[in-house]
Structures are given as C-alpha cells and as structure tokens.
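Internal QA ticket QA-208
Title: Verify multi-chain structure generation after dependency bump
Assignee: T.L.

Test input:
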Amino acid sequence: MVASRIRKEVDEALYAFVDRQRPLLDAVSGDLAPMLAALDSLLSGGKRLRPEFCYWGWRGSGGEDRPELFTAAASLELLQAGALIHDDVMDGSDTRRGQPAAHRRFEGLHAESGWRGSAEAFGAGAAILLGDVCLTWCDEMFQGSGLPDEALRRGRPIFDLMRTEVMCGQYLDMRGQARGPLAGHAMVEEALRIVRFKSAKYTIERPLQLGAALAGSESVAELSAYGMPLGIAFQLRDDVLGVFGDPAQTGKPAGDDLREGKRTVLVALTLERATTAQAQTVETLLGDPALDLDGVETLRSIIVATGALDACEKMIDGYTADAEAALAAAPLGAEGREALSGLTVVATARTV
Amino acid sequence: MVASRIRKEVDEALYAFVDRQRPLLDAVSGDLAPMLAALDSLLSGGKRLRPEFCYWGWRGSGGEDRPELFTAAASLELLQAGALIHDDVMDGSDTRRGQPAAHRRFEGLHAESGWRGSAEAFGAGAAILLGDVCLTWCDEMFQGSGLPDEALRRGRPIFDLMRTEVMCGQYLDMRGQARGPLAGHAMVEEALRIVRFKSAKYTIERPLQLGAALAGSESVAELSAYGMPLGIAFQLRDDVLGVFGDPAQTGKPAGDDLREGKRTVLVALTLERATTAQAQTVETLLGDPALDLDGVETLRSIIVATGALDACEKMIDGYTADAEAALAAAPLGAEGREALSGLTVVATARTV
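Actual output:
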C-alpha cells in the first residue's frame, strides 16, 4: 500500500474516532466546543509517521490490511497530540504545525471573551486538560480498535512502554536543560541519550515494534537494530530543521528551537567545537525569547563555522546507513522492507 | 468485606503495580527517582473512595472477591493522582494530602540543586509529566488487571466515559471561574452542574457502575439513582470542609479553598443571599492568594450569617436522603446495600 493511501486510512480512522466523541462532549455542554476545535486544528497537521511505521511493522510481519489495524495505528496520533500540547505548555511555544499552540488558542479565547483572571493561566490549564483528554483517548482508541483480544494483548507491553518512555524522556530532557551544559563531549553523549529515549524509541522503534507485535511477530526485539538508529537520525534531522528549516515547511518560525533554547545534539556539537568567544555568544543568544532574525543568523553562522552542522550531517548519514544495513537483514517481508526503505528516506530528508 | 480490609487489598494492588514500574524507570535513568518519590508521597494519602465504590458495585452485583478486581479498582487511584497533580498545577496549590503538591516538590528540587532557569517552570513541567505518567499507568493497570477480556470489555465504556467526563468537568469549572459569577440563583445552578460532571459522576456514580459492569450487571444505569445524589452530597460536604474543615484532617491549610477562590455551590449560595456589602467583601477576599486567617474568619462569618452554610447542609441532607432511598431499591445484593449504606455515611460525614 502506498504512503498516501496509508495516510488516508489513518486519517479516516482518526477523524472517525474524534467524530464519535463529539456528541458526547456536546451533550455535556456546548462550552466544550473550543476543546474539540483546538484538537481538530492540531490533528489537521502532522506527518502520521508513527502510524505509518506501525502499519509497516504489522504488514512486514505478515498482517493483512484491515480497518482495525489502521484504528490501532492512528491512536498513536492522539498520544503525539497530547505530548505536543503538553510540551508546548512546558516550553511556552507559540506555534505548532503552523497554527497557534493549543494554550495560545485558549489564551486568545480568554482575552476575546473578556474573562477574569490571567489569560495565560487559563490557556495553560485548558491545554493541560486537552492534552489529558488526548492521552486517554489514545488508549480508548487503541483498546477499542476492534483488533482481536490476543493481538491487543501482544501489543500492550510495547504500547505501555512507549508511553512511559516518552514521558520519562521528556522529564530527562527538561532536567538536562535545567542542570545546564556538561563539558565537551559529555554534553554530546547526554544529548544523544535523551534523543534515544525521548524521540528515537517513541517515533520509530516502538511504533514499528507495536505493529509487529500486534501481527504476532516472534522477532519484535530484532527490529530495534533498524528502528533505533533511524529514530536517532530522524531526531538529528529534526534538530537541524529546527535551526535551518524553512518555516513554511516546519510550521514553526525560523530558528524557533534556538529561541526556545533547546540543548540539542547540534547545539552540543557546536559548544564542543566553539572557541571561547563563540561559546559565549551561543550562551548569550540561545534561549533568548526575544531572539530576532539577526540573532538567529549569528547562531546559524557559528553552528556552520564550528563544523557542528557538518558533524551532525555525518552522524545522520552514519545512523541512516546503520538503519539501512539493519533493514536489509530485518525479519520483515520484502514488501515491508521496500516500504521502510522509502520511509527511511522520508524520515531523514533535508526538507520536510 | 470490611472497609479496612478493602483498603488494604487496594493499597497492596496499587503499590505492587508501582513497584513493578520502579525497575523500568531505574533502568532508563537514576535521575527519574524524584518522579517516583513524588508519586509515592501522593499515593500514601487518600481515602480510596473510588476503588471502594467500584468494589461494592462488583460485589453488590454478584462478583466474587478476587485480586484482579482489586487491581482494576485500585487503578482509579492513579487516575485520581494524575487529576490531582494537574489540578494543583492549574490552581497553583501548595499542598495536597498534607504534603507539598507535586509541582512544589519539583520546584524545591530545582532550587536545592542550584539549576538554571525558572524553578517554577521546572516544577510545573515535571508535574505535568508526572500526571501524564499517572494517567497512562491508570489504564495500563486497569487493562492489565488480569480480569477476563469479556469483563474488561463490559467495563471499558464506563472507564472511558469517566475519564473524559472528569477532564471536561474540570474545563467547565475553570471556564466558569474565568467567566465570573452569574447573577443570583443561576450561579447556584451552574455550580451544581459542574459538581455533577466534575465530581459526582467521577467519584461515586462511575466507579460504582464500573464495578457493576465488570461483574456483568444488567442494571448498571439504575445505579445512577443512588450514585449521583450521593456524589453531589459528597462534593458539597467537601466544599464545606474546604472552608470550615480542620487542616489536620483535610491535609490542606485552613480556608485553602477560599484562598484559591473556588466558586463552589457554598460560595454561590453565599453570594445569592449576601447584602451588597457582604458580596463586596466576598468578592474582595475570595481568591486572594495572601488571604490570612483573619480574612478566612471574615469569609466564614459571612457564609454563616447569610444562611448559606445552613442551606448547604440542608442540600447535603436532601441529596443524602435521596441516595439512601435509592439505595434501598437498588439492584444490589443485601451485603452490598448494607456496605454502601455505611459508605454513604463516610462520604458525607462532617469530619473526614
């Protein structure tokens, strides 16, 4: 099945689930409409990468196309939605997928309505609750997918692990940012460790394994050899795009990761290689919420001049090559291997 | 089975689940220890009311005592933990169950460790993530309870509905506080509507129905006639204790609900009956974070003088009587009816 067709099936399953919840919320109160509107807006974007890897884990392990699998796979988009909504509250991000972040939408509702108290606190509170709704709907959708009980029971340990891992990875990331940079190469190692738990497992390894486990694969663990390096390459690419990407494609303002002060592998590579003067400039500008385009350009030029961008691209190439080699030997059918080879390119492409 | 024995079984199931997660987090990183410590602290308190109602829904519908049921029932404590942690972030509460609120614990960790950036933002972020972990563990624990698939399938719609309802009720509550008071009796009606969705269903009606559904009851819907009025009486009692309760018993500083500015039914009844001068005093003091004991006493005396406390006590008596009458006719065995009669007293008692 081609990617566009998978995406269509995933979207249909996702929207069908949300549409079934709509009357339930309407029955409670019409005042809940902004919750659904914020969710609709968020779900209209996104690349559906996790469901797609889940699908190919299933298909590559001999599973037949069936609507129940698309429903189970699409449930991962609700986990991702909940994680993004909460992430944006924590980071104070303004935009997500080219739209205002959920908490900013609710802030706007508060301001427009002329309500009392802090619009910011209302926005954050409403977004925390919407994220909570997404997290519980994720599991409601997965468990209610209609897949046979024995399939769900096989998938559950991975489904559960994935959710705990992404939240723990997020905590470790936040803790690392708060603790401040380590010296030299230890900083790169630490950033890579967080990438493993927060992104690589969550985005690629676990979804792929989930699909395989649902299909009854006996070789679930072996898929890590492909999923983990590709997941790292994917996140490193995302970090590069967060600094150098085209806002029209990333859905985020130019250099937004720099403004948020994200201590990515790319930043760690930069600081590892920087002169004292360069390092001081990075530490001054990185994480400045008022960072303008000149400041973004200054940081970009240091990232390039130190050789960090080249080093990061080399790492991406290396992890991608590891993933491709592992894929060739992976316990997956020929069709699955071919499709995943295409996805490997998509996940690590220089444009999104 | 007596209440203390049920509580013991519920506690054992709860701690056994958390203990099984512990090595998983340790394996990711020792830096996750504060997450588990904050959860342990929160779970050491609480009355386990929801699991107890779930147990009696099961037992009253002919279910036999079995460890799997205690596990499924105890999972509701993780939902409650997640809701409380997020609620405390949203309300900026300092304490919970006599301990520092989770976000304050993480704030303290940040400050003690001498980390960079805002301790407050770190505290809120870590607590959002810990609440997310609790929400996903709730469903992991419920689904992994070991109850037969057909029992879980019967319980699922109520389990799912309950989770969506509590989050939506929370949103409506927050929205109501932001929009500001309605005039006269409409304010009381509005506060009662939120009590129904946010508390009554979530604390009593749904847990009871969940137990009954798991046991295969054909009369799940009929349990609302008991669960809903008792749930309302329970929340009204909680509101009274939030203003007049003994801090040693409530685990919250005296008058904390007043300091947080909660627009409870009790407050609505007060404003409905207040003179212009009294209403002005209430509007000035209510929600003042720096409200001292004198201010608390002033508000208490207005709540008493307007007759709002008496009116609230009458409502509690009325809803409790409705619940007792419904219980006598409820589709539950004699043992279940007797136990729930005792729980009715506990849930609405003037001391906690």
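Spot checks passed. The radius of gyration of chain A is 21 Å.
Status: verified.
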